[in-house]
Write a structure and sequence with these properties.
Number of strands: 55
Strand content: over 45%
CATH topology of the domain at 169-185 and 546-722: Immunoglobulin-like
Oligomer: single chain
Structural class: mainly beta
Distance between the termini: 56 Å
Low-confidence stretches: 1-72
Helix content: under 10%
Mean pLDDT: 84
CATH architecture of the domain at 169-185 and 546-722: Sandwich
CATH superfamily of the domain at 169-185 and 546-722: Outer membrane usher protein FimD, plug domain
Largest sheet: 24 strands, antiparallel, barrel
Amino acid sequence: MRETLRTVGALVPATALGWRSVAWRGAWLLLVSPHALAQPPSPDAPSLSLPAPLAAPHQVPGPGPDVAVAGPGAQTVYLAVSLNGVPRGLVARFELRDGMLATTPEELRQIGLRAEVLPVDGNGLVWLDAIPGLRVSYRQSSQEAALDAPDALLVPAIVGTLARPEARLSGGTGLVLSYDLYGETGRGRHVGLYSEQRVFHGQGVLSNSGVATWSEAQDRYVRLDTAWTYTDAATLSSVQVGDAISGALNWSRAVRLGGLQYRRNFTVRPDLVTYPVPLLGASAAVPSAVDLYVNNVRQFSGEVPSGPFVLNNTPAVNGAGQAVIVVRDALGRDISTTIPLYIDTRLLAAGLTDFSVEAGFLREDYGLRSAGYGRQPAGSASVRHGLSETLTLEGHAEAMPGTYTVGGGVLASAGGFGVFSAAASLGAGRERGALFSLGYQLRTPAITIDLQGIRTAATYQDLAARSGAPYPDGLYRATLSWPMARNGSLALSYVQLDDAQPGGSKIGSVAYTAQLGGRYSVNLSAYKDFGGNGGSGALVTLTAVLGHDTSASVAAGVDGGKASLYASAAQSTPYEGGWGWQAQASQTDGVRRYLAQARYRGRYGEMFAAAQSNERDVTGAVDVTGSVVVMDGAVLPARRINESFALVSTGMAGVPVLVESRRIGTTDGNGHYLVPDLMPYQANRVAIDPLVLPADARLDKPSQYVVPSWHAGALARFQVERFRGAQLSLVTPAGEPVAAGTPVVHVESGATSVVGYDGMVFFDNLAAHNHLVAGEAQQRCTASFSYRAAPAGSIPSLGRITCRGAQRGGPQ
């Protein structure tokens, strides 16, 4: 019996069927194998309960003479399963009673059926004959259950390209010092320095930022933000201790405070789509090729199995669109399925919850005082929950001695007719009031509508008002835009602010943009203040693309009755490094101004210089930005590091570094290169070019995936080692090459090789004195030679080395 089990394991690979399927198939073979039944059981072997022989089988409708059902009684059987004529490659456990089969929902899920929609009896079993639309055939001789199910019962196959290569979070420890130094001359001396210090490690990121200024009037330093942040990838949440910005909704306002914040952090899972996405799926009668088009742009091509399938690609559209799925079978027949889309990223997918909770003391005089905090504690909480694919609920509360607010809101999708929003909030304490908000947004290829209105009643006071920014009495916004002609668009907007203290405003504007050919574009805009100021203006701009990164523009306009003319030309600064510049001349209300500036972006930072003149004076400015990173025992200057980064370490200078197959630089004299601007929590592919490595260099891997955390660095180490290698020609005492294919052993290292044509042999771990053994048994011969290290980057040839013994020469 043990021998039979071993045979089963050899015939059915565990990697193909899974360990449980192998065990079941082994049990099935034991049940039906006469050889297995003839073996006497071992004393320590587990006992097997064999089912009784099928009694008097009788024919039932189905294919072939093998179809039969059992008579009275019940038994457990293990059957190979096929679904819609396709073998599933597994053995499932069934209960056979009165000619009917039953199994558990778990087994049905493994087979490929939607078990959640199937009826379950009191014993936790699903009787297959009770499933509408499912046909079952039990073949006794082959011990197989053939299932024929409609698409409604099948689990759709998930097809797509959203999955990124799996990679663990790449931890690292280090220090980042970022700086932005600005100096200005012409109207008095003024120098400013923004700096940030950031320490990152496995337990989070500790950061501090501030601004120092030196001028003729005053020298001072003001601290901006200091905080420690820890992100938990398992719970998709972050904890921040220190200075923070509170969470807010579209109808509430954020405030700065010092204290503690706990919030949801969806950026930890870049593959998680947080907004509702319609299922893009269809059905294929046979294995077919499938193409996905979204707004006439192909986004995916691949293959699907027979049956229903779902494409998990997130459509690249915001608003209304159209997806077309084209299924093409082996005969070249096309079947198209059109699915209307409406996607709004403000909604939350069903079951997802977003939140932010913070408590502490409000910041006062931010940017003016280093430690300006209120004396009274304050706290706020915001939460959003996707109740369904069309409904998202919102809630917000704030509390501070003398000020208390609580409110709720809703976002409701109307399908292809847009999304409605509504919210209300009540305030109590020193002042009592209420806030009401209504909104509507519709985005289609033909028109875009965005409406939002917020109104307060009585005296509504929130934490932002306690910080010195009273809530306006009313804020209304309306935007309407639609495409014009082939490459143009027209937009109308209106903004109204009702505020008794500084005075309200009612501003309407219109903008028209058109593409004139492939290199020219025109933009016309105008505004009108319908409030007390009554101002108005208009501007027309013509832009021409002169080259890959060079453009020029001219503009003319009027603002408040003052005419203006502009002319400028610019060349953008290449990301990989180089020069950029801009020149501009303008005249406003008869006053002429000239501006010239140049920017250089290098490996270790950026430098900006500008000169500006008008009819009265000339001013100049210089700005230098960059960072210094301390990591992996090295101190490295770099460009300004705002987000995550990686430090490539090779131990060899001049090695090209690539990110997502794009070359971005080479390692320095210590073998390091700093890769800025990586996406946190994503698998960023970092590689080096092995083709430029010296001939005597050994590389463990040419690429790897780096997953840095938020505002932290990751170490991408590539092991590049020099080896002591040489090639030689192994010959017999008669001068003939040793036969090709003869095995060779390097005695000192134990390494093995094979003789090539003309007796050529290569080893990369040679010692000062070396011995080789070639051949086997009666054909063995030995050779010895000395090796002196060659100059770096070369592999020497040692010439002909005699192998003495019984080995005969090979064919020439």
